[in-house]
Amino acid sequence: MKKTSHLLILLIFSILLVACGSSGHNMEDTKPEITSENSSDEKNIAVASSKSVEETSSQTESPYPIKNYVAIDKDNYSVTVDSMGWDNVSNLAYLNITLENKTTDKTYIFNTEDSFINGLQVHIPMFESAQAGSKSQVVWYLDPLNKSITVKDITDIEALLHVYEFDGKESHEIDTETIHIYPYGQDNITTYVYEPKDTDQVLIDNEYCTIILVGSDMNNVNYALKLYIVNKTDETMNISTGENYIDGKKIKNPPYFPQIRPQKSTFETINWLVSTIKDQGIDPSDISNISFYVDVYASGHLNDEHFFKETISFTP
Questions:
Q1: H/E/C letters for each residue in the chain?
Q2: Which of 2.60.40.1230, 2.60.40.10, 3.40.640.10, 2.60.260.20 is the CATH number of 201-314?
Q3: 193-225: pLDDT as tens digits
Q4: Locations of Polar residues compositional bias (predicted)?
Q5: Residues 7-43 pLDDT 10s
Q6: Same fold for the domain at 2-188 and the one at 201-314?
């Protein structure tokens, strides 16, 4: 599994290098530099950077006091949160981050895996690189999903950061660290609590997990169910699904669920193609029943007792 992950990272990084090489700009001419304030004789540090979000007209004054917060500082690399704000066009919060590679001869790749906002598990990946002796300035957007947390209410950001060394041919992991960022300070963190609605349907609820249907939606491509999932255990929870039926007819491609980390919750959307539903003679705007087999168990414990293992059936 680790080898596959390394190959994937290598492929993505190679694509990034090709994209940069095919640009019509001369990178040597356009690359910005940061000069040390301590001495004019010190060598300038090259910065691989996209334009800071704070320079765009879509921004408003940041409500977050956090600035120049060093989240990780090690002998070979550091991660600093320069500032935090939000884009009032997309209504997404973001972090301006500096990734520093302190080595003289190694390229580093920084990749986040699990991320949480106020304890809510979210998918906000960051994949960036920093050349030897350089600082990469990146903008990391935070999407709490389904507008469940307003931008001004983000008080706790947690992410698992993987650092890889890349030699031009292959990469290998050199460090893993958990980043904690508290926009208003550690004494002011809050935990996300879902507020139930009258239209919710509880699909599964036991001592191990809760799965709630919080809504459905449809466009020209997908029919989607919106779920809120809670892992009540101290284990990473896997959820797999088997055959699924809509109005009694078997539909291809069973729903997919991600892993839910211990004592965490998340929103997840599962989709069926509208065309697949119509191929069965079903009107996707008038579905009366959906059913599928659900198997919930602790990651790495497939042969142990499962948390839930039944077919669920409901009207969306």
A1: CHHHHHHHHHHHHHHHHHHHHCCCCCHHHHCCEECCCCCCCCCCEEEEECCCHHHCCCECCCCCCCEEEEEEECCCEEEEEEEEEEECCCCEEEEEEEEEECCCCCEEEEEEEEEEECCEEECCCCEEEECCCCEEEEEEEECCCCCCCCHHHCCCEEEEEEEEEECCCCEEEEEEEEEEECCCCHHHCCCCCCCCCCCCEEEEECCCEEEEEEEEEECCCEEEEEEEEEECCCCCEEEEEEEEEECCEEECCCCCCCCECCCCEEEEEEEEEHHHHHHCCCCCCCCCCEEEEEEEEECCCCCCCCCEEEEEEECC
A2: 2.60.40.1230
A3: 899 999 999 999 999 999 999 999 999 999 999
A4: 47-59
A5: 445 445 544 444 444 433 343 333 333 333 333 333 3
A6: yes
